[in-house]
Design a protein that fits this description.
There is one protein chain. It contains five helices and no strands. By secondary structure, the chain is mainly alpha-helical. The protein has one domain. The relative contact order is 0.17.
Length: 160
């Protein structure tokens, strides 16, 4: 039963993280997350089609992971998206005057470069943990799984 619950819980947590990030970008669009003074300002300005596309990707990934349909492909897509975000944050760490990530409402008020760097490193560590959980899904979900993998259906299959 443990082999069923852990992947399911990982899917729920990953989906919750993507939904939280998307909702935060919509609600606090000018205060943080892709708002004034964040890493993503130059690449994805607030209130542009690209800005809303990122939000759409986060919502779609959350729905995909929750549905369990083609879960390996969903996990791979989430892994690629998290890798992209981590790469952008990693590049910012190397700048002489880095900008804060703004992820999940992190403060974008003026801070020292050192404090911002540590915040960015924390963001990369969080992303690494999320990527590890996503990789776990890739390894644990059987190949060729096309239908929804819910906790109930997986438990029923294991009992048979």
């Amino acid at each position: 039963m443990r082999g069923i619950i852990i992947p399911y819980l990982i899917r729920i947590v990953l989906a919750a993280v993507f939904l939280w990030a998307a909702c935060h970008k919509l609600v606090y669009r000018n205060d943080s997350a892709f708002g004034s003074g964040t890493v993503f300002d130059e690449m994805i300005p607030s209130r542009t089609p690209a800005y809303f596309a990122v939000i759409g990707v986060e919502v779609a990934l959350a729905a995909w992971l929750i549905s369990g349909i083609r879960l390996r492909q969903g996990a791979l897509t989430a892994l690629l998206f998290l890798s992209f975000l981590s790469g952008v944050v990693a590049m910012e760490v190397t700048r002489s005057n880095p900008k804060p990530c703004g992820c999940f409402g992190e403060s974008t008020t003026v801070q020292s470069s050192r404090a911002i760097r540590w915040s960015l490193v924390g963001s990369m560590c969080r992303n690494a943990a999320l990527m590890g959980a996503t990789a776990y899904l890739l390894l644990k979900v059987p190949r060729g799984t096309k239908r929804s993998v819910s906790l109930v259906s997986a438990a029923a299959e294991e009992l048979q």
